[in-house]
Amino acid sequence: MPLTSCDILLVEDEEKDIELTLVALESHHVANKVHVARDGVEALEFLAACEAKQAAGTAALPRLILLDLKLPRLDGFQVLEKIRSNPATKIIPVVVLTSSAQDQDMLRSYLNGVNSYLQKPVKFEQFCQTVKEIGFYWLLMNKIPVGRLLQAGDSRVA
Amino acid sequence: MAGLRELESTSKEELEQLRKRLADAEDILQAIHLGEVDGVVVEGASGPQVFTLQTPDQPYRALVECMSQGAASISERGAILFCNQSLANMVGRPPKKLLGSSADVLVRPSDREKLRELLSRAFEAECEAEIKLEHIEGRAVPVKVSLREIAGAQVRSVAFVATDVSDIRRAEETIREQAALVDLAHDAMIFRKFDGRIVFWNRGAKDLYGWTAEEATGRNTQELLQTRLPVAADTLYATIRNAQEWEGELVQVRRDGTQVTVASRWSLLRDKAGEPVAILEVNRDITARKQAEQAIRQNEERLQLQIERMPLACILWDRDFRVSSWNPAAERIFGFTKEQALGRHPYEFIVPRSAQAAIDRIFDRLLHGDNTAHSTNENVTADGRRILCRWTNTPLKDPEGETVGVLSMAEDTTELNRAEEQLRSAARYVRGLIEASPDPLATISREGKITDVNAATEKATGLSREMLIGSDFSSYFTRPDEAQRGYERVFLEGTVRDYPLALRHVSGQVTDVLYNASVFKNDQGAVEGVFAAARDVSQLKKAEAELRALNEQLEERVAARTRELNAANKELESFNYAVAHDLRAPLRHIHGFAELLAQEAGAHLNDTGQRYLRFIQESIDRMSSLLQELLNLSRIGRQELRTEPCSLNVLVQQLLPDFEPDAVHRQIEWRIGELPKVECDPILMKQVLSNLLSNAVKFTRQRRPAVIEVGQTERHGVPVIFVRDNGEGFDMKYADKLFGVFQRLHRQEDFEGTGVGLAIVQRIIHRHGGSVWAEGELKRGATFYFSLQPCEIEDRQEAKEHALIA
Q1: CB-based contact, B618 to chain A, within 8 Å
Q2: Residues of A in contact with B577 (CB under 8 A)
Q3: What DSSP line would sit under A101-117, residue for residue?
Q4: Is any Cβ of chain A less than 8 angstroms from the Cβ of B592?
Q5: Largest Cα–Cα separation, chain B
Q6: Which bin fits B4, alpha (ψ -120 to 50), beta or left (φ > 0)?
Q7: Which of A40, A37, A34, A131 is nearest to A77 (CA)?
Q8: Residue A98 touches chain B, beta carbons under 8 Å
């Protein structure tokens, strides 16, 4: 798969959810490039590749990760853990977008360093609204140190 | 004393005789002088001799021959010129033999010198002396001699007259002997003149009274001794005049002033004329005897008094067992007076026939001198009552050891017996109780030794009473020092409760016991020992152990059940999760793609197609709401109740703002009363109130004004909270369905709702242990009640409750 820089990494296994999310993102012109990883392993592989690219000088890491929790192979928490333990990806905002509103999922997500936790609304309008607001907030309003993303081993900078 | 009297009279007699003879001699001399007598016949050794009185010396010769005295004339040279018959008799020789002999032969050799001296002296003057003549038989004859020169005689000679004083001397000797004897005599002998003047006072008198003979002699006896006479003096002296003697007791005073009682015998002495001249008083000190006699008398009196006063019957029997003495107690006990009893045999009146055989044996033993012949037997009283008496009998013996009588003491022990029997019976009862006790009981002395045990103790230790008594209490325990400490504590604190020890059986088996002990005191209040009871707690311990095991089992089971429950919950959780997650996703997809379809192909659909699409979307909406509510319901069922005191008013106030949006185009009249503070989970309670208020708001939509009341009331003593509205109400016929899950009494198009709200309310209230119910009237309104304590209102929803998701 050709590696291109993207705005959002969407980690989602359900095909229909992927379609709906992409439609929602498109309809509101939220993001230009969205990379979809269909399970946790794919997601981490992709991030690794980005990291390499980044090290070579090309900006590649996504500016936002939308993470579903119920994933095959590696579940969402494990992915989150891996993301957060990797200095290169540590500071990438991660928003959990899941069906579940269970307290323990929420808690675990926050403990693992998630930035935001959202429940997928059932109704499509609301779903679109939520996605729009996510994009709006995390890509437009929220600031991240873009330059810093380029260098690995930055985690210890005070 | 008799000898002296005799002596007296003899001496007196002799004196008389002498006087008489002298008188006769004088008469004769007188007669001769006067020439009235011609001749004299004199009795001599060789027969009567007749002397005629013709020669001038004849009368003198006759006289000399008459004299009882011995007479002789002795020459200057000491030869006997003449001697009379009397003198010859004195020396036991015939006169012829004596004539011409030396006068020496007359006297004892020891006195011869004396005689010669007298003879020579006599020529100058008359002299007298006492010498001893020599009888031819060798004995001495004491004589009083007087010598005088014979004037006018042819030859110079001395007249020698000897008077035999041997009798007098003998008498004197006897008197001296007697006097010595008298002095030896213990008794006091006082010889006094009739006027009382003491003339003789023996050593006995000195010893008795303290006065010496010198001091006493000459004093008046009455004065000296202050004699107290037992009778009047006149009477006494009259008696003694008559009877010559008097005997009696006198009380006199010694020299030192102390009193003395004497047994006194007086003898009267009379003179020739019969006049009393003297009294001989012989006294014996009987003070001690008198005192002894008095003591005896007092004792006797006291004894008699005791016998009279004693509560025991005191009876004397003679040899034939006839009553000789019967005291007042006997009268009282047996009911017979002394007069009635004296002389009677017991079988006649106080011994019933039934007892006679036994009493016969007693009598027999008594007669044989057995002084242990006591008995307890039945007696009969004067009024016919049967009584039980204890008889103590003592045979009375004479000096030869023969039984001459019996002294009996009798005590009516009927009552005592009865009391004793009751006491014994009570004691047996108590002992019975002690022995019956299944607990080992023991009494322990101050030194820690066992003094008594019951059967249970024997059983518990495996040792007999005999072996246990006297041994150390603590030695039967597995921890003797602890037993000792426990025992000491009893003495300190008076009692010890539930002191744990272990008793050891000889077989080695150990029994756990709890000891309860107290000190016990005697009648004087002094601690005598400790009474200890052991409670066998081995069964108890076993039961405790079983209980513990059971508890552990139960806890284990509870834990297991809890684990099961937790596991079930966990399962439910994951089920829920799955439902929450897995159901929502398809729902979302359906909704999303339906919308997208509408967007993509809506233009190509006809009205019906579009309507159908709309229905699909509406269905999804509904399903989503239901799902959410179900999730809520199940969560409420599963989560822990965290109760705290909550003010319901505060919760209501917190909820009211939520309804402001609804109230914008309406008029809602809120009537919130005073609600109690209750112990509940605030979050859940808020949910309850929210649901109820929400319903009230919803169903009063068509009312102007909508009146919603929240207040407190009471049902069957239990506080109850209600929410009342004046809204649509409901038909009471369907009240059952109200709280059912998804059960609705109204149509969705009239009033939206999932039908889960009230189920949630009920679930929460039930979890608080309370009850919830409703009353309503179609078109008029509804009131929903709930209590947090069980209320008698039957909660029919409970039975009907199902949960799709528990």
Answers
A1: no
A2: 100, 102
A3: --HHHHHHHHHTT-SEE
A4: yes
A5: 249
A6: alpha
A7: A40
A8: yes
Average pLDDT of chain B, as a whole number: 84
Amino acid at B621: D
Tell me, yes or no, if B591 comes closer than 8 A to chain A by beta carbon.
yes
Distance CA A114, CA A97 (A): 11
Question: What phi and psi, each to the nearest 5 degrees, are found at residue A146?
Answer: -65, -45
Which residues are CB-contacts of B547 (< 8 A; sequence separation ≥ 6)?
A: none
Contact list, B587 vs chain A (CB under 8 Å): 122
Tokens of B680: 């509940």
Residue whose entry in the numeric block shows the structure tokens 């209750």: B678
Half-sphere exposure of residue B67: CA atoms within 13 angstroms, side-chain side: 21
Query: Could you tell me the two tokens for B314?
Result: 């005191």
Give the number of other Cβ atoms within 10 Å of residue B330's Cβ: 25
Higher pLDDT, B130 or A55: B130
Reference B159, options B86, B89, B71, B91; nearest CA is B71
The single-letter DSSP state of residue A32 is S
- Kindly list the residues from chain A whose CB atom is less than 8 angstroms away from the CB atom of residue B591: 122-124, 127
- Report the pLDDT value the prediction gives residue B803, as an integer from 0 to 100: 35
Closest to A20 (Cβ–Cβ): which among B577, B580, B592?
B592
Phi and psi (nearest 5°) for A100? -80, 140
Q: Measure the CA dihedral B474/B475/B478/B480, to 10°.
A: 40
Q: How confident is the model at residue B51 (pLDDT cuts 50, 70, 90)?
A: low
Contact: A122, B624; criterion CB under 8 Å: yes
Q: Are the C-beta atoms of residues B734 and B749 closer than 8 Å to each other?
A: no
C-alpha–C-alpha distance, residues B220 and B39, integer Å: 57
pLDDT number for residue A118: 93
**pTM to 2 decimals?**
0.38
Cβ proximity of B453 and B465 under 8 Å: yes
Contact A23/B at CB under 8 A: yes
Q: Calculate how close chain B gets to A99, using CA atoms only, in Å.
A: 5
A residues 43..82 contacting B (CB < 8 A): 70
Q: Can you tell me the mean pLDDT for B241-262?
A: 90
**Is any Cβ of chain A less than 8 angstroms from the Cβ of B594?**
yes
**Among residues B90, B214, B69, which one has the least CA distance to residue B145?**
B69
Is A120–B592 a contact, with Cβ atoms under 8 angstroms apart? no
Structure tokens of B176? Answer: 């001296």
Of A23, A70, A123, the CB nearest to B591: A123
Least confident of B55-59, B265-269, B285-289, B475-479: B55-59
Asked if this assembly's ipTM is beyond 0.85, the reply is no
Q: Is B619 on the interface with A (CB under 8 A)?
A: no
For residue B596, the chain A residues in CB contact (below 8 A) are: 20, 23, 124
B584 to A122: CB separation less than 8 angstroms, yes or no: yes
Pick among B581, B583, B620, B624 to test the A interface (most A CBs inside 10 A): B581
Torsional sign, CA B173, B175, B178, B179: negative
pLDDT at residue B283 greater than cutoff 80: yes
How confident is the model over B154-171, as pLDDT tens digits? 778 888 888 888 777 777
Please tell me which residue, B636 or B494, carries the higher pLDDT value: B494
Whether residue B473 is predicted with pLDDT greater than 80 in this model: the reply is yes
- Rounded Cα–Cα distance for residues B61 and B49 (Å): 12
Q: What is the pLDDT of residues B186-201, one digit of tens each?
A: 888 988 888 888 988 8
Measure Cα distances from A42 to A36, B191, B408, B498 in Å. 9, 174, 134, 77
CA distances from B573 to B34, B635, B638, B760 (A): 200, 9, 9, 18
Helices (H), B463-537: 465-468, 480-493
Could you give the dihedral angle defined by the CA atoms of residues B324, B329, B335 and B339, in that order, rounded to the nearest 10 degrees?
30
d(CA B659, CA A4): 52
Beta carbons of B595 and A120 less than 8 Å apart: no
